[in-house]
Amino acid sequence: MSSRDVILNRVRRALGGPGGAPAAYDMDIDRGYRRQHGERTVEETVDLLAENLADYRAIVHRTDAGELPHLLMRLLAERWPDTVLVPPGLPAGWMSAVDAPLVHDGAESTAAELDRCGAVVTGCAVAVAETGTIVLDGSSDQGRRRITLIPDHHICVVRVPDQVVSSVPQALERLDPARPLTWISGPSATSDIELDRVEGVHGPRVLQVVLVSGE
Predict the structure, then answer these.
(1) 57-75 as b/e, with b when 16 or more CB fall inside 10 Å?
(2) Residue 21, pLDDT above cutoff 60
């Protein structure tokens, strides 16, 4: 019996379950998790996502597909980054109105080169309303994990309602566990022992999420 089995056996006994290792984890362990908390319409689910994103200090914007390029232009112009980093598969129309020079990430891009980019614009894989979390899976419109961790400003575009789910279990059903998943709840932040919040510690200092309809 492995150390893992010993520990899990102790947990099962503490919870009043049967002793010994299960014959098959997918059969002997209850997977009947609650899929979501309460019933919501699609509009209410999107509203909950926006509320929880803002609670985590992400800056939330809403727009439609036609206005998305102009909104991205305005958001980037407010901070005037020297260059904007984009993943290789970002829809070309999204950046059609942006004035700043674009840097297309590639396998040869170094961390130092990425650090010179003031902002990054990506899509997402899925967004979880109940936790205010956006998930990236390294698809072509999101790029490598490093491009969303090095620049100081991350703009993430979420297609609503297609990419919005209520709960984590629903999100997991859409995700491939073999892909490099990045779960983001607000800008990067930490607190010291006196609870002084510091943002931009191990990721972007500013997270803006654009909820776009009509894509």
Answers:
(1) ebebbebeeeebbebbbeb
(2) no
